[in-house]
Every structure is written in structure tokens, then in C-alpha cells.
What we know:
alpha+beta; 2 domains; BirA Bifunctional Protein, domain 2
Amino acid sequence: xxxxxxxxxxxxxxxxxxxxxxxxxxxxxxxxxxxxxxxxxxxxxxxxxxxxxxxxxxxxxxxxxxxxxxxxxxxxxxxxxxxxxxxxxxxxxxxxxxxxxxxxxxxxxxxxxxxxxxxxxxxxxxxxxxxxxxxxxxxxxxxxxxxxxxxxxxxxxxxxxxxxxxxxxxxxxxxxxxxxxxxxxxxxxxxxxxxxxxxxxxxxxxxxxxxxxxxxxxxxxxxxxxxxxxxxxxxxxxxxxxxxxxxxxxxxxxxxxxxxxxxxxxxxxxxxxxxxxxxxxxxxxxxxxxxxxxxxxxxxxxxxxxxxxxxxxxxxxxxxxxxxxxxxxxxxxxxxxxxxxxxxxxxxxxxxxxxxxxxxxxxxxxxxxxxxxxxxxxxxxxxxxxxxxxxxxxxxxxxxxxxxxxxxxxxxxxxxxxxxxxxxxxxxxxxxxxxxxxxxxxxxxxxxxxxxxxxxxxxxxxxxxxxxxxxxxxxxxxxxxxxxxxxxxxxxxx
Length: 494
């Protein structure tokens, strides 16, 4: 191999890669000057279309993930998004100089290979290299092949390396992308219109959560990052866009655990001229469709359970669920004082400000949620925890709201939306009172939203659910960070 100067390759694995780069540059072969590739075939296409492509010339490109052989013959495994392909390279075919460069390729290098498709004597579909090109030099060694990248913290911080070393991770995020595209197609076919609403807002409402604060210099105004999509989407219902949805990031200043990340992806939709019963029907059809499209089955394995989306989802009121699993008949509870006595007996913690409906919700969380493994709609929540929901006409202490549970997790929240501006103002006042008592997750009054309701909103049903938890279920992932490409992590210098 002709070289203008001699460079001794270091025994240090990182410096050795820099030394090899310098040799290439000295030869006028700087791989970082390559701007494109003539790739015309993927690894998967070669395997799938072998009979058609056998003995035909193809060009593949990807990352070198293994390298073996000696002397005049080298075998490489080249990986692209679709899979891997073995490359068979001979010095006699490439020429002495090009083969010498190939011999110095490292695991992780990104390369282009032109050659004909064939099967080896061992029966493995391969590409017999006729020309090769180094497209990008990997200057950091990848983790050792057989142990891979197993450190969880490092996997999340270096997702790029995680995707390279762990094929199942790549499959998870391909499925996540498919979940979102499936939702979009499903809703588009149902006549919904996708819209976008502000992320920076003066009033972060629509959910019980602490917001993040920021400052807008141009207007010298404090703003918040949205915690929900609800209030703007319902403004659009007022405006006559009868079926709208948005899939977007929301931000909640809360803790981090296996099911919570402070920024996550939310899907919310609103449909005029329906109620929470219509939303239950739509949700059931949508989740069944997503399971079928993404996993190929309406039965999905998650951990030790098989989640069956094919059967009708159970529908149960919160009161009936508490009676079933906590053996408490809430219809016999007369007031907040009695509710707190029951909570004390059940060892359920509460705050002084909590009222009867709040206590019911706390008992539900403690005694019921863990039992709701199969898809279940829990209906008719107490008004105290539902400030944006229409009251039940026959029992105004409760509202037309449901949450869907799967695997003991809340997966979906939906209402018959409150469209009475007078009632909504009173609910906002109650939220303001809670805020004054120290509930930093309470809503504040949104005057523009109230003005929209005064213009007139038709009877409306709405649904909201987190894409991340849905992706966990559909990919059998144990933690939310496993389905977020770049989860929130504490800085290493903290």
C-alpha cells in the first residue's frame, strides 16, 4: 500500500483509530470527505429477493459489526436499518492497495460495498465484494460484542450506541413510530383533523400537574410549558372544527419513575355531538386496531400477562370497583368525615383538604388499580377530581368521565366535556381555592377559555392518553425510558 509517510499505529484502541485515519488522509482518502453513497439495495432486500438477485451486482452500505479471516480473504458483517449482510472480500478481487485499506477497517466503520450476490459453501447469502469504500471512520470503539451495552444508565444517555448494539431496542422504536402512524391513519379515516396548539402558554390547564416555567424576553412575560392539550383543542370545537386531535409533547414538573418522564407524548382528541359513551366505543376500536397493526395480534404479551384486546373491554363504575375490591359500599358514605374514617381503617393516607370524592379516588388507587390487568373502563368519577367534566344528570356529585386501565396502569382519560360556562367558572373558582390551600397541581381560571364556552360549545366527548405507556405495552418494555429515545436524565456534572 503506497503511503507518503510512515505512521506507527498505536496499541491504544482509540488512538489506533486516529492513526488509521491519518494514514487515510495522507493517502488522499479522508473518509469524512465522502458526501453520499450509491447504495441501491438494503440487506433485507438481498435476503428476501435472493433468487432474483443471485449473481447480480448490488451496492450496500452500513456499519461493520464483525470482521474475521486472515491473509487474502476477509469476511465482514455489514448492518443497515433492515438487518445484516455478510461480505466476502478477496485481495485478488479488490487489488492489493484497496484490500490493505479494508484490512484496517475497524468495527463500527461505515462502509459501502459493491459486489455480486451469492451463497457461500455454508449456504449463507452474501455479497462478493468487487469494490469497497470507507464512508465514515468510527473513532470510538463499540462495546464488546458478546457483552454488549448493558449498563442501563449508559444506554439511555448514549441511545445512539444502544441502537447499534441492541437490535431489540431498534425494533422497539420502529414499533413506537408505527404506533403513532397507525393512530394517525385510524383517526384520519374516522374524519378527525390533526392540528397543532401552543406549547408556551400563559395558563397551563387541562390536567392536575405542576408546570415548568420560563420567561419570554421579547414580551418580558413569564410563560409555562403546557401540561395538556385540552383547552386549546376545545376552543377549536367551539370554532366549528368538529373532530380534532393532536399528538404532541407535554411537560409536567413531576418525579421520574418507571411510568413517568417529565416530558412525554400525549394524544388528545375531541369530537362534537357525542359523550363519554361514544368515547369508550372509539377507544376500544382504536386500541384493538393499534394492537393488531403493530404486533400482528389482538393478544399482546406484557410481562407475565397476556393483554386481550379482542374481547369487549369491561365497563365498571368507580363506586362498583371500590365495592368489588375494597369491600366498601360508597353509596352508604354520607359525608367527608365518614369517608376519612373509612380511609383511616383502610390505612389510606389523605390530606386535610381532601373531600369525600377525593377519598374515594384515593381508596380506588390503593385497592383497585392493581387488579385491572385487562382493558377496563372505570366510569363515573367524583366531581372533586374532575374540574372539566360534565355532571351526571341523575347524580351531580359524579361526572361522566372514564379512565381506561391496562396492567394496573391508567392508560386513558376521557370525558363528556363540560360546556356550561357558568358551571365551568364555579369549577375554576374551586380549583383556585385548592391552589390557595397549597395544591400546586390545581388549575387556575382561564378567562379566554370561559369566553369560548360562552360563545357556545356543542356536546363533546374527549380522550387523552400517553403514547409512551401505550408503547410500553405494545413492545413489552418494563420502563418508560425504554420507549423514549432520549429520556430526561440528571446531568453527569451534578
